[in-house]
Amino acid sequence: MTVTIRPADPARPGFVGEVSGLDIAGGITPAEAAAVEAGMDHYGVLVFRDQRIDDAQQVAFSRHFGELELATGDIAQGTQRRLSMEINDISNLDRDGGVLARDDRRRLFALGNMLWHSDSSFKPTPAKYSLLSARVIPGSGGNTEFADMRAAWDALDEETKALVRDLIAEHSQLYSRGTLGFDAFTEEERAKWQPVPQRLVRRHPRTGRLSLFLSAHAGAIRGWPIPEARMLLRDLTEHATQRDFVHAHVWRPDDLVMWDNRVTMHRARRAPPDQVRDLHRTTVADVAPTLEQAA
Predict the structure, then answer these.
(1) Which residues on adjacent β-strands are paired with residue 146?
(2) Helix, strand or coil for residue 64?
(3) Cα separation of 144 and 268, whole Å?
(4) Are 81 and 74 in contact (CB under 8 A)?
(5) Nearest partner of 201 among 279, 280, 295, judged by Cα
């Protein structure tokens, strides 16, 4: 079959594509991987329907696009984990498959996924691609929304573009979870998640397009007073997530959704807390810290 990609929303032909002609479970060729990457350059987000895959197949597909991150950003580590370290556990389940209690520390930490963010922006080298596979979805809710940071940049006025073009923000999970009132971190976690610097404006290495690099993990701007920095970051996030720039993905079982963290933000939406929501994410690391990449 030939790989074809069409806009998920014909009214927005440059953001979010739906892919057909691929059997991910059976493996893909280098030419098919190149077609997927070209699609990512254009759309920023790709949706693959009806892909019944296991973790090993998901990992094999993801490795076509770069080196995989380990799930060091998950709060569940060691004996608490139910998945391998190559898989981020995007679920409300404990290691025995039971739904986490409402006040479970792991569930409260995971509520941060409902904030607009870019995956792993709290790591010195942030994420390139994320690939999220829907294994079990709840009966209602639980959508994932995506915002186009390229369009958000393009729509800024020239004065704001000049203001933010060379700014360096600092990102940490301590910031993002702190906005929700979650501060129950161990000393080891606080040391592991110390803020890291990221460009506020990035240039895509293949297309050359500029985009805002925002995230709930961003809580400071170098050289700025904290209140002023957070006010600017809030203003930019409100601008970047207006409905004209946002697409809501309604999950079906066996969907695989792939997105470019360099040019998008995303957030999970509320789902019934007593129903299973089990998604597995592989994450392709970028090649270098943003400060070492072309501006």
Answers:
(1) 247, 266
(2) helix
(3) 5
(4) yes
(5) 295
Q: What percent of the chain has pLDDT over 70?
A: 100
Which residue reads 């390229």 in tokens? 150
Residue 229 backbone phi and psi in degrees, to 5: -65, -45
pLDDT tens column, 39-49: 999 999 999 99
Beta strands in the chain (DSSP E): 4-7, 17-20, 45-48, 88-91, 127-136, 144-148, 168-171, 196-199, 201-203, 210-212, 218-221, 246-249, 256-260, 264-268, 278-285
Residue indicated by tokens 């607009």: 116
What single-letter DSSP state applies at residue 227? H
Q: Under a CB-based contact definition with an 8 Å cutoff, are residues 21 and 3 in contact?
A: yes
> According to the model, what pLDDT value does residue 79 have?
87
Q: Which residues are within 8 A (CB) of 175 and not within 5 positions of it... i.e. 6 or more apart? A: 195, 216, 217, 218, 219, 220
In sign, the C-alpha dihedral spanning 230, 235, 236, 237 is: positive
Structure tokens at 265: 């933000």
| Contact assessment for residue 211 and residue 239, using Cβ atoms and an 8 Å cutoff | no
CA distance 119 to 126: 7
What would the pLDDT profile of 128-184 be if each residue is shown by its tens digit?
Answer: 999 999 999 999 999 999 999 999 999 999 999 999 999 999 999 999 999 999 999
Question: CA 170, CA 196: separation in Å to the nearest integer?
Answer: 5
Q: How far is CA 207 from CA 115, 190, 204, 286, in A?
A: 28, 37, 6, 15
CA distance linking residue 70 with residue 168, whole number of Å: 25
User: Which of 209, 240, 283 lies closest to 41 in space, CA to CA?
Assistant: 209
C-alpha 47/C-alpha 16 separation (Å) is: 7
